[in-house]
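Students often ask what a 'structure token' actually looks like in practice. Rather than answer in the abstract, let us consider Long-chain fatty acid--CoA ligase, a protein of 493 residues. Its sequence is given first.
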Amino acid sequence: MINLIRNAESHLQRIAIKSEGNSYSYQELLDASENIALELLNTNDDLREQRIAFLVQPGFIYTTIQWGIWRAGGIAVPLCVKHPYSSIKYVIEDTSASTIICSSDFEELLSPLKSKSEIRFLSSESFSESEGSLPDIAMNRRAMILYTSGTTGNPKGVVTTHDNIETQITALTTSWEWQKDDHILNVLPLHHVHGIINVMSCALWSGACCEFLPKFSADKIFEIFCRKEVNVFMAVPTIYYKLIAFYNELSSARKNEISEALNPFRLMVSGSAALPISVLEEWQKISGHILLERYGMTEMGMAISNSYRDKRMPGYIGLPLHKVTVRIADEQNNRVEVGSQGEIQVKGPNVFKEYWGKPEATAETFTQDGWFKTGDIAVFENGNYRILGRNSVDIIKSGGYKISALEIEEVLRKHPQIKECGVVGIPDEEWGEIIGASLILSSDEIDLDELKDWLKDKLPGYKTPRKYIFQEDLPRNVMGKVTKKELQKLFAN
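Now compare that with the structural description of the same chain:
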């Protein structure tokens, strides 16, 4: 039996899920997921890694479907509720999904696929009590396929085994000291490792409660926090930024009420994108907490984390998690000296099995001696790792220099008229790349000459942006990450 499922049997009467105003026990989670598993099996003894795609809103039903797929021996393929039909169709076709489970609100969107006779359609509202036996699932079997954001070419399906998932869960539940009395609010998309593993699966592994809020609302989040049930929260920088902006518009009495509710929290985490130091400092003033930053990606779950107990350094991501080995390597995959920048490379049982149906892409992302090449550039200094950016979009190569876009963004955000910004490299015949900055202003306009003077004593000349554009907001994906490729296109146009 999958250990995540086995653990649930030790917490049968505890509340596992809260969603849509209802509470569900671990017993109800086990019963409902068993019924789904039996329906999926449909007289078969084992799905034998059939891909089962599902499109439902986050909550109890989502969780029971994912567990049901696993218990029947299938591979779970969660679909993004915000993606257009073309993106969903791509995932279903790429995985050759045998079954699609969807809720009624997505039936019309998926209706063109119903003409495909090889795909079985099931309604998430139609599962009923069933009897039968479930297969015994080996931990080395494929469990899930999540799709990368596809910054180059089509998105790739990242295949993880049950062993991979368990290692990712236990690394976090151990390092972040999860307890059965924890209660976390999940506001993250459930087609992504952050929401599935870090939040939902860690809570359910521990016998804790996972509460869902399917649609982001700063007001609703603070309302839930003020009930004083939630004690763990994880989000992306964009969410913290929006919460801070909403908080700043409230009355003094409401601000005090929220701060008093936040202060007793056990843990607050930020990830999936670089956390601006200004956001960290603002949230600390509001909540009394220094956000714990961590580093990971779809292909490996979390690999590096700041300490739960010890001092956290703004701008740093900490040290490798349990069972994870990390090195910083140069372009020839040789370990660099301490203090030198290079690519983060990772080994461990947390690392994914393969890209679905793409053996060449899988081989290319590993070194000959088995290190996973993340494509992220970092440096080890002051006893911790510090991310400099994504090799392809956050490291700007200009005039022989390798420049971190994230460093420039941190400086720009300190200007009183700049609310947010994004920095990218723009192709240039003379310099290779020049630096472009997209600015989101807190006032109507800014004097660029004054800005350049302001930057002179904060950045060397070769790190100073040469081109500027102004936007209402930055282009982002569903996780709130700035899509730098789209930003580069805006400069090009």
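One point worth highlighting: The longest helix spans residues 26-41. Ask yourself how you might have guessed this from the sequence alone, and why that guess would often be unreliable.
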